[in-house]
Amino acid sequence: MQRPFSQAAENNKGPIAEVLARYLDHGDLLEIGSGTGQHAIWMAPRFPDVRWYPSEQPENMTGLNRWLEAHPSPSLQAATMLRVQGRWPEHRFRHVYTANTFHILSRPLVERCVQHLCEHLTPQARAYIYGPFNYQGHYTGDGNRRFDLHLKSQSLSMGIRDQEWVVALFARHGRVLLADHAMPANNRLLVFH
Fold first, then answer.
1. Could you tell me which of 94, 124, 139, 145 has the fewest CB atoms within 10 Å of its CB?
2. Could you tell me if residue 143 is inside a domain?
3. Please, which pLDDT band fits residue 2 given cuts at 50, 70 and 90?
4. Which InterPro entries does this chain map to (predicted)?
């Protein structure tokens, strides 16, 4: 089996790393939904003081592990199996990062993800959420509108989430929006503290 490949992950890894460099100092980081692992293998060597813990659903672990095995790094940890609706690791993290997951997860699973994510953060920790978001119910560009319609054609449970709704979910768990970074291709990187 060849390693899976995501062109989107290849395109956005550099801009995401530039923003994360403002925040990542040290400690353990859980990546939720690592996908192919392209972000993990790119980021971990760039942040040597951060122990990067990739995670994925069981059915995606083989592809993820192929990337991790091909690109070892001292700060890159073994991948963890994680289903948002299932059991989470007992470990608490200084950082939690996820890219392009909230529009794939159903709204109830986004709520569960935020709840568990916040429970697994240390008190002074930060969460980083990357992806497309709507603002006040409106798309930020025509590309996002087409993407949202494409998602909903696959499943009505998927779709671009409202930024304000995500901010309110974090606020329920005592986490506030620290920054909202504009990213290429009409994406955002939300930072919660």
1. 124
2. yes
3. confident
4. DUF938, SAM-dependent_MTases_sf
Indicate whether 2 belongs to any domain.
no
Q: How far apart are CA 130 and CA 97, in angstroms?
A: 8
For the beta carbon of residue 31, count every other beta carbon within 10 angstroms: 27
Which of 154, 181, 11 lies closest to 36, judged by CA? Answer: 11
In a domain, 105, yes or no: yes
Q: Would residue 11 count as lying in a domain?
A: yes
Averaged over 68-73, what is the pLDDT?
A: 96
Cβ neighbourhood burial of 156 (10 Å; 0-12, 13-18, 19+): exposed
Cβ neighbours of 135 (radius 10 Å): 12
170: three-class secondary structure by DSSP: helix
Taking only Cα atoms into account, the Rg of the chain, rounded to an integer number of angstroms, comes to 16
CATH number at residue 180: 3.40.50.150
- Report field, pTM of the whole predicted structure over 0.90: yes
Angstrom distances, CA of residue 66 to CA of 107, 113, 148: 31, 26, 31
For the chain, the average pLDDT equals 96
pLDDT at 121 over 90: yes
What is the C-alpha to C-alpha distance for residues 99 and 81, in angstroms, rounded to an integer? 17
